[in-house]
Amino acid sequence: GGPLGADWAVDWVRRSAATVAEHRVELITLDREIGDGDHGENLDRGFGAVLGKLDSVAPDATPGDVLKLVATTLISTVGGAAGPLYGTAYLRAATSVGSEAELDSAAVAKLLEAARDGIVARGKAESGDKTMIDAWTPAVEAAAAEAGRGASPAEVLAAAADAAAAGAEATEPLVARKGRASYLGERSRGHRDPGAQSSAYLLRAAADAAAE
Ligand code: ADP
Ligand code: MG
Ligand code: MG
């Protein structure tokens, strides 16, 4: 239940790659319903590439170094809408944690907020637009509330993951107003947003890595 170091960030990467691989077909199917069907493929390629670079992480690396590696790798390998959006999220998260070796609850909550703000800065989506923001914003709010009541970093991330999962599910009745799914208008209703679902998986991976 203590502060989180680079070992946590590395484990987050490993678990992210594993969950994206595990849910690859599901994410492809979700994206096929309201997009072009490549979301699972794009992310699997991206996190596979990050995994391949973990050996180059220096022994004295900080969580911020790992987050920056994720950012640059996703930006150059994922493509589509999600590549630059996730890339910006991890880049802002890296900037948020600076060169701290260990992250307390407040730093973890702030990291998530910075990531969400990066996605908004890049994609201009608002809550309810049926995008990954509908997973991230509830996660950020739950994390801030947990940190505020003195919860551990692991508890902060668990609350964020729970809120993101609920937020992803809650995209189903929404009409998409951003991204490729918005071309479908009313026909986007009744389908879960793939980016919101992948965001929920990534945040669950962060929580699981912290729970170890
Ligand atoms: P593409 O649509 O280019 O094929 P992906 O399939 O990889 O890209 O990613 C689609 C996901 O990206 C959507 O499910 C949505 O969550 C997210 N997305 C798209 N546009 C935006 C945006 N402007 N802001 C936030 N998220 C967005
Ligand atoms: Mg797509
Ligand atoms: Mg695409």
From TrEMBL:
Source organism (scientific name): Agromyces agglutinans
Protein name listed in UniProt: Dihydroxyacetone kinase subunit L
Domain DhaL as annotated: residue spans: 7-208
GO biological process: glycerol catabolic process
PROSITE patterns, sorted: DHAL (PS51480)
Keywords tagged on the record: Kinase, Transferase
Annotated InterPro entries: DhaK_L_YcgS, DhaL_dom, DhaL_dom_sf, Dihydroxyacetone_Kinase
Gene coding for it: dhaL
This protein's GO CC annotations: cytosol
SUPFAM superfamilies (UniProt xref): DhaL-like (SSF101473)
GO molecular function terms attached to this record: glycerone kinase activity
NCBIfam families in alphabetical order: dha_L_ycgS (TIGR02365)
